């Protein structure tokens, strides 16, 4: 019999030998990495990425490390019961239907398969080196959890498992100056604050809150080893003296914000990783006590003084005074140097980021940068990131700032391979400790009082009784003596094992149903063969065991199910001819265990392309087939993956081609064109809501060469937590590799089923709206039939009361989900941020990446209901309003000829301009392309938001001449035709697609090395990447494969030649140039400055 487990204990004996918790299969040399040589793919048969039969085994949960309780911990509590699922935060839901289920025999229930890429193949951002090529740290490898060098609780096993957080580094000197991302240490200098059970205070220099900690002394050498990282995008120069002035002449920027090169880095106070003494509270002053106002510190925003130069947290662009006058002519580029205007910087070395220091929240590094998180109380910014890292105390202050207050939540995001895994805690039958009033989960910011017998909730302020078996005495510092031994009391992200009182039915099994289009067009274009080949290759990636079920069906104008039972000599086709009132054959015949039907399934997938090769049926009963597949899955739930090639034309939910109508009306009636981006009717939406109710998630793989009414059919994956993949126009030569990789990642990425999510906020703030791919049936929760590591949800917030200056405001995301091996979990992510009454603090604490992601998602939500010019105008106004508020209330320079930009938001005008020229806001594209863009944006994560509209461009022709200095990727190039040589070759990627541009005067030797031909005219238009035996070709292949690994996308490559229409497609992405769709970057800055001047006057 198993030994008793104390409540709140980490689950024992749940560690598998299948690899470290942060196993990173995207790394080079890993057998499970995304395909590095997919260009060698045969026509319709992707090579197996794994040895035959090497399917995933139940591993330790993704990003989690359930391990034995450390020695010396209290040994009290009740024995552990079996795994018990749950359904929804808050009061237990009513009982529902039950269903037999259980983990595979002999295997411990787990979260995700062993071959799941547990360090998201997005990897480092643009201009970052790959994980596999980073320089080693001084003094050897990083320390691991449990190592004696660390004073933090050893949640992991006694040995140094890979993937642990880095060891401590020496303390750098105190900070000099401020940055646009620093925050005032509210209440820190007014004496010792109240105590709590929260994260221990890390001894620092000067007592100030610090930002990301660099692993060593900072120098300006680019791409140096860990001991010498270059300047980071979020480091700032020291403050200028009060008498500093702007540069003279026509130089547009002051020396404090030259965007063409990173500013000198600011150092941050640090401390070793050993356990320090604790003082202060992560929550703020106790009830009834008002925190002293923040005192001045180096670099804090000073009152405006005439004659002052720009402060270190602002950029300044000099614009001739005539530009500030209404009706003034737009100046030529010679008036402003385009090379000196703000552009994204480059940073190659990762930084170590502590989420809290000295009981103060640290502002996170940019989402697009490379960083390693050390969770010291607040959650990692990968899981939850706020648009402003200080919360305005009043709604008036927020309105004045012109910025949005929102959370970007990505609850299953992949951690960095070097980060500590998320801990799994089991409280036994009683379940996790929660506030009895608001149902908030225990977290580091709940304060224990009365010798630990009571605790005060950091969300509603209610003082609750501590369960008797969870009580612990408080130390002299007021913290629980066991706080450092309990992940839920010292970590911002933790995962609880759910109990039976929260479940409405047994956890659902892992069901995968494949629905394939076999209409005439799909057969002739090779889409059917490509789908069958991809499915057959990923069968080995499905989780093994009796809880994995599969089914398959095909459709044209009728629906064909297949009986896959082993008792039959071969699969048996079952035809459903009625596509108006669909039905399904016996469920047990068509959805069977993978272990029982694998041979029949492989035989069937080999046969389907030839079975229908003589088909002359052009019609498609897509909606009827999806409905019939749902009826087969209804009792179990699961993932439905649909491969569609033509417009749904018959049966229930049939659609008509609206694209021709749209083209005719686009120019004549611009205000009505957006209606084509709305669903044709409510039929598919009604179906999707029913799918979500029964936990069926639908993913669409669109392999079309014509219009399919993406606006209507995308409603299904959007409502069910699924995703749309588009391959237009589908090519049997170049698209099968991407189709295979997309399907493989869809199945193997970390994910959960039948999930429910809720976000809770402290008093004074409440959730206004959720935005993403989900179904919402009650106001407080969102239902997700499936959720994965790539899906992000935007949560907009609003004030319902005034907050206390100097206190902290907490946010908590609770995600309840079922792992693919049938264990119910509650992932709790908590973030606590300071409140402020100062407008300057809001701009200093603004998070550019999440601000822009919020703007992007709001624009995408409005496109189907508003005319495009109005959506563009709103995006520009959103940018202008924020910059105007900073110029009026915070800037220190009074010259009307200078455009003042807050340092944290200096790239907002560039990204706003790029948004207005993006696919979703252009009128010259296909309706389906715009619909796909809208759907893609709805669930996009924060790190991928900027690359979508401002892609990365690199030069290819000189790769062999560049010294990569340890990085596979060369520096990126600004998106301007001024940086494109007529003798060059350039590669541009936005995370989904890649464009390879060949200019007209490229040297024949370079063409021979890259393409195997001496002239551009001889390069085939259906380009397939190949590797030749030379250094340039090898380096380009390495670059493409590294980008694919980073983006977690196969990134199909389209060849573009100057002078061809494809060349114009490439040049349309030069968002800094003047185009028919908008002004140049310089002209846009002038336009923004003019609007600010008009508001000022």
From TrEMBL:
According to the entry, every stretch annotated as the Sec23/Sec24 trunk domain falls at: 507-747
Q: Where is the composition biased (Low complexity)?
A: 145-157, 177-187
Q: Where is the Sec23/Sec24 helical domain?
A: 847-945
Q: What is this protein called?
A: Uncharacterized protein
Organism whose genome encodes this protein: Brassica oleracea (Wild cabbage)
Higher taxonomy: Eukaryota, Viridiplantae, Streptophyta, Embryophyta, Tracheophyta
Enumerate the GO terms in the molecular function aspect.
SNARE binding; zinc ion binding
**Keywords tagged on the record:** Protein transport, Transport
Q: Ranges for the Sec23/Sec24 beta-sandwich domain?
A: 752-836
Family the UniProt entry places it in: Belongs to the SEC23/SEC24 family. SEC24 subfamily.
């Amino acid at each position: 019999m198993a030994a008793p487990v104390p409540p709140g204990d980490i689950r024992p004996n749940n560690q598998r030998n299948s690899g470290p918790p942060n196993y990173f299969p995207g790394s080079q040399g890993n057998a499970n990495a995304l395909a590095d040589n997919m260009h060698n793919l045969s026509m319709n048969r992707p090579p197996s990425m794994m040895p035959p039969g090497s399917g995933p085994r139940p591993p330790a949960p993704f990003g989690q490390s359930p391990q034995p309780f450390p020695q010396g911990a209290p040994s009290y509590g009740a024995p552990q019961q079996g795994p018990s699922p749950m359904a929804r935060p808050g009061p237990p839901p009513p009982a529902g239907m039950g269903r037999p289920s259980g983990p595979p025999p002999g295997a411990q229930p787990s979260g995700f398969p062993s071959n799941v890429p547990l360090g998201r193949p997005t990897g480092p951002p643009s201009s970052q080196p790959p994980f596999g090529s980073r320089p080693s740290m001084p003094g050897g490898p990083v320390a691991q959890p449990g190592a004696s060098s660390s004073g933090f609780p050893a949640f992991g096993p006694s040995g140094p498992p890979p993937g642990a957080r880095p060891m401590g580094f020496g303390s750098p000197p105190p900070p000099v100056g401020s940055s646009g991302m620093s925050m005032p240490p509210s209440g820190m200098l007014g004496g010792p604050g109240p105590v709590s059970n929260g994260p221990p205070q890390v001894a620092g220099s000067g007592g100030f809150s610090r930002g990301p900690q660099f692993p060593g002394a900072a120098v300006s050498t680019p791409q140096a080893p860990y001991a010498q990282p270059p300047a980071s995008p979020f480091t700032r120069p020291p403050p200028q003296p009060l008498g500093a002035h702007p540069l003279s002449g026509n130089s547009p920027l002051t020396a404090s914000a030259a965007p063409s090169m990173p500013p000198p880095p600011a150092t941050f106070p640090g401390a070793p990783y050993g356990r320090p003494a604790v003082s202060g509270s992560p929550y703020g002053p106790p009830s009834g006590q008002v925190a002293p106002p923040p005192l001045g510190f180096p670099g804090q925003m000073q009152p405006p003084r005439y004659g002052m130069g720009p402060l270190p947290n602002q950029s300044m662009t000099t614009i001739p005074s005539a530009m500030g006058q209404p009706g003034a002519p737009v100046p030529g580029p010679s008036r402003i140097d385009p090379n000196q205007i703000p552009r994204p910087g480059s940073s190659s070395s990762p930084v170590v980021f502590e989420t809290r220091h000295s009981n103060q929240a640290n502002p996170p590094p940019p989402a697009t940068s490379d960083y390693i998180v050390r969770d010291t109380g607040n959650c990692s910014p990968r899981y939850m990131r706020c648009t402003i890292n200080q919360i305005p105390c009043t709604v008036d202050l927020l309105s004045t700032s012109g910025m949005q207050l929102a959370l970007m939540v990505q609850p299953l995001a992949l951690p960095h391979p070097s980060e500590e895994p998320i801990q799994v805690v089991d409280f036994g039958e009683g379940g996790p400790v929660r506030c009895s009033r608001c149902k908030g989960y225990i977290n580091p910011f709940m304060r224990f009082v009365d010798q630990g017998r009571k605790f005060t909730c950091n969300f509603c302020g209610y003082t609750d009784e501590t369960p008797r078996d969870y009580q612990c005495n408080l130390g002299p510092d007021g913290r629980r003596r066991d706080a450092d031994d309990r992940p839920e009391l010292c970590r911002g992200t933790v995962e609880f094992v759910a109990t039976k009182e929260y479940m409405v039915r047994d956890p659902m099994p892992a069901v995968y149903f494949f629905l394939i289009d076999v209409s005439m067009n799909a057969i002739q274009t090779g889409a059917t063969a490509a789908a069958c080949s991809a499915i057959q290759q990923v069968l080995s990636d499905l989780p093994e065991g009796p809880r994995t079920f599969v089914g398959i069906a095909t459709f044209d104008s009728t629906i064909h199910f297949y009986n896959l039972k082993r008792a039959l000599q071969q699969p048996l086709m079952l035809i459903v001819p009625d596509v108006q009132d669909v039905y399904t054959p016996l469920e047990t015949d068509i959805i069977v265990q993978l272990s029982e039907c694998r041979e029949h399934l492989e035989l069937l997938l080999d046969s389907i392309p030839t079975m229908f090769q003589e088909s002359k049926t052009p019609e498609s009963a897509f909606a009827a087939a999806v409905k019939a597949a749902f009826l087969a899955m209804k009792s179990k739930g699961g993932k439905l993956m649909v491969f569609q090639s033509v417009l749904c034309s018959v049966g229930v939910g049939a659609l008509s081609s609206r694209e021709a109508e749209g083209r005719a009306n686009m120019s004549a009636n611009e205000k009505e064109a957006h209606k084509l981006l709305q669903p044709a009717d409510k039929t598919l939406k009604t179906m999707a809501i029913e799918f979500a109710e029964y936990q069926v998630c639908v993913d669409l793989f669109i392999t079309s060469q014509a219009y399919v009414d993406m606006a209507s059919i995308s409603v299904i994956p959007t409502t069910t937590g699924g995703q749309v993949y588009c391959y237009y126009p589908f090519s049997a030569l170049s698209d099968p590799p991407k189709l295979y990789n997309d399907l493989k990642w869809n199945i193997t990425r970390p994910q959960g089923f039948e999930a429910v999510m809720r976000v809770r906020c402290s008093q004074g703030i409440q959730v206004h709206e959720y935005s993403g791919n989900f179904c919402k049936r009650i106001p407080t929760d969102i239902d997700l039939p499936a959720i994965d590591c790539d899906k992000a949800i935007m949560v907009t917030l609003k004030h319902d009361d005034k907050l206390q200056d100097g206190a902290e405001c907490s946010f908590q995301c609770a995600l309840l989900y079922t792992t693919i091996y049938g264990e119910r979990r509650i992932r709790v992510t908590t973030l606590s941020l300071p409140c402020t009454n100062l407008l300057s603090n809001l701009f200093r604490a603004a998070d550019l990446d999440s601000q822009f992601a919020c703007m992007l998602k709001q624009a995408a939500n409005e496109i189907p209901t508003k005319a495009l010019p109005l959506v563009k105008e709103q995006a520009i106004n959103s940018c202008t309003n924020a910059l105007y508020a900073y110029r009026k209330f915070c800037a220190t320079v009074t010259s009307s000829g200078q455009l003042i930009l807050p340092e944290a938001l200096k790239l907002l005008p560039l990204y706003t301009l790029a948004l207005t020229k993006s696919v979703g806001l252009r009128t010259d594209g296909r309706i389906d392309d715009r619909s796909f863009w809208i759907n893609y944006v709805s669930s996009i994560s924060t790190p991928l938001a900027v690359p979508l509209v401002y892609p990365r461009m690199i030069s290819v022709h000189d790769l062999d001449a560049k010294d990569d200095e340890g990085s596979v990727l060369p520096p990126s190039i600004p998106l301007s035709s001024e940086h494109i040589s007529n003798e060059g070759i350039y590669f541009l990627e936005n995370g989904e697609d890649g464009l390879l541009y060949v200019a007209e005067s490229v040297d024949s030797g370079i063409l021979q090395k890259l393409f195997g031909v001496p002239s551009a005219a001889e390069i085939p238009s259906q380009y397939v990447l190949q590797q030749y035996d030379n250094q340039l070709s090898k380096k380009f292949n390495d670059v493409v494969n590294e980008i694919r690994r980073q983006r977690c996308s196969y990134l199909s490559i389209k060849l573009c030649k100057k002078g061809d229409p494809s060349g114009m497609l490439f040049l349309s992405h030069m968002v800094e140039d003047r185009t028919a769709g908008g002004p140049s970057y310089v002209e846009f800055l002038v336009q923004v400055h003019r609007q600010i001047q008009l508001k000022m006057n």
